[in-house]
Amino acid sequence: MSPASQSKPLTLALSKGRIFDETMPLLAAAGVQVSENPETSRKLILPTSNPDLQLIIVRASDVPTYVQYGAADFGIAGKDVLNEHTAQELGGLYQPIDLNIAQCRLCVAVREGFDYEAAVHQGSRLRIATKYVQAAREHFARKGVYVDIIKLYGSMELAPLVGLADAIVDLVSTGNTLKANHLVAVEDVAYISSRLIINQASLKTRGQRLQPFIDAFARASTT
Ligand code: ATP
Ligand code: PRP
Question: Is this model's pTM higher than 0.85 or not?
Answer without folding.
Answer: yes
